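Notes from the 1:1 (GR / supervisor)

We went over the backlog. Supervisor wanted to see one worked example end to end before approving the batch request, so GR pasted a single chain during the call. The sequence is below; no edits were made to it. Supervisor asked that the structure be written out right there so they could see what the output format looks like.
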Amino acid sequence: MKELLDRREWKKQRTREALEAAAWRLFQRKGFDETTIEDITDAAGVSPRTFFRYFDSKEAVLFGDWRSDIERAARTFLSLPSDEHPLLILREVMLSLVERFEEERPKYLFRKKLAATSNNVGAYERNVILPTLEALVIPALAHWMGVDPEEDLRPFMYAGTALIALEGAKRIWIAHDGEVSLSELVKQAFDIACDPLS
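Structure output shown during the call:
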């Protein structure tokens, strides 16, 4: 039975990888908006119905398994000491996210180029990924601080500061084609956030 389950999981992983690989080839060759889900499924040799078992949209294929990144950020959050300032905790959480960006630099930079030419790509990041991250960070931070996020502004303000620090660092990193350290840029951004009058 275990061997059968392992084989099913292996097959599912292979199908997911085939869809991602086909999509990336097509995005690079045709462009994001010009590529259809049918193009992707034809190239991967599966049906559109199979596609939707793995992804809910083209954008979800492009951004890969970003939910795992957010889960990793949540695990980092829970592992940190409770006596640190919230912004220092959030710096470590954001640094745990940028490790993946740096590991997959060519893919990340390509996504950003697509975002410059497709409103759908930028909208997915703004309207799906960032709100999901924010929805994790604000309640977790409020719980960690022992406050009610409906009554205390600080979790909202700290989370917003952390996300802006991350986005600012990413903007400079992208402007330099990823040739500078994103981790160092994030640290610099949090240094500024922690001492705004310096």
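Supervisor's comment: The domain at 65-194 is CATH 1.10.357.10 (Tetracycline Repressor; domain 2).
Batch request approved.
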